[in-house]
Design brief:
There is one protein chain. The protein contains 11 helices and 11 strands. The protein has 284 residues and is α/β, with parallel strands linked by helices. It has one domain: Aldolase class I (TIM Barrel, Alpha-Beta Barrel). The protein binds zinc ion.
Length: 284
């Protein structure tokens, strides 16, 4: 199956009350682990690629690996730019073969964010590429992004609703109390914001920083209208823990396949757990 825009499955997700996971691509083992999980679960999914990960792997490798993973897994797969910071990088990704992009204009003033996002939507929709926009500031650290907790600002529901009405993004990321990276304590999710926005906005809400959010909170947010959940840190933690243990126990180990293989299995297991939790299993 070729790469598809998120609109191939997100409207159905919101209607039927499940969420599709965005699992970030860090290297080949992540690509294979995520694709193997999806094949077994028969779940659609989104490959998230940050600008940092793109620099690490190279744009052409990213697209080629995603295309093979889509073909191999046989499920609907979107290749999605995560937190695209400007119009140029969005265009570069679309030209290279991405089927979906996020434009994160949340660091701009509100009206400017709307204007810039509208330009991205116009260009992307013209070639069948889906778009995610962001409103409010999601805290935490992820690659090039670092937002101090004090600067993380919740989205205001009326602003989020007008943002969607004007931009018509296909998925709307709003800051509701989750953060990128690992949580120090338990995250406090503002369900009231999700509820108010989801009722007025056709596009599903996106939850960034899905790693470490308690299962019950994930299920409640899906029930209220979250249709896309981003997970990266939890897969990284699972993969690295296995590799650390292998290398710690066997300092003489030098064949990368012997520790990266088990790391890949750990990613697969983590992703499968999320697909079941999100209710996307069997929805391919
Ligand atoms: Zn994010």
């Amino acid at each position: 199956m070729p790469l598809v825009p998120m609109t191939a499955f997100l409207p159905r997700a919101k209607k039927e009350g499940f969420a599709v996971g965005q699992f970030n691509m860090n290297n080949l083992e992540f690509v294979q682990g995520i694709a193997a999980a999806a094949k077994e679960e028969q779940s659609p999914f989104i490959f998230g690629v940050s600008e940092g990960a793109m620099r690490y792997m190279g744009l052409e490798y990213v697209v080629a690996m995603a295309e093979i993973a889509a073909k191999e897994s046989g499920v609907p797969v979107a290749l999605h730019l995560d937190h695209g910071s400007n119009f140029d990088v969005v265009m570069k990704c679309i030209q290279a073969g991405f089927s979906s992009v996020m434009f994160d204009g949340s660091h701009h003033p509100y009206e400017e964010n709307i204007a810039l996002t509208k330009e991205v939507v116009k260009a992307a929709h013209a070639v069948g590429v889906s778009v995610e926009g962001e409103l409010g500031t999601i805290g935490g650290v992820e690659d090039d992004l670092e937002v101090d907790e004090a600067d993380a600002a919740m989205a205001k529901p009326d602003e989020a609703i007008r943002f969607w009405e004007e931009t018509k993004v296909d998925a709307l990321a709003i800051a509701v109390g989750t953060a990128h990276g690992m949580y120090k304590g338990e995250p406090k999710i503002h369900f009231d914001i999700i509820d108010e926005v989801a009722k007025q906005v056709e596009a599903p809400i996106v939850l960034h920083g899905g790693s470490g959010v308690p299962d019950a909170a994930i299920q409640e947010s899906i029930r209220l209208g979250v249709g896309k959940i981003n997970v990266n840190t939890e897969s990284q933690v699972a993969c690295t823990a296995v590799i650390r243990e292998k290398l710690g126990n066997q300092p003489e180990m030098i064949d990368p396949r012997k520790y990266l293989g088990p790391g890949r299995d750990a990613i697969k297991e983590t992703v499968q757990g999320k697909m079941r939790l999100f209710g996307s299993s069997g929805k391919a």
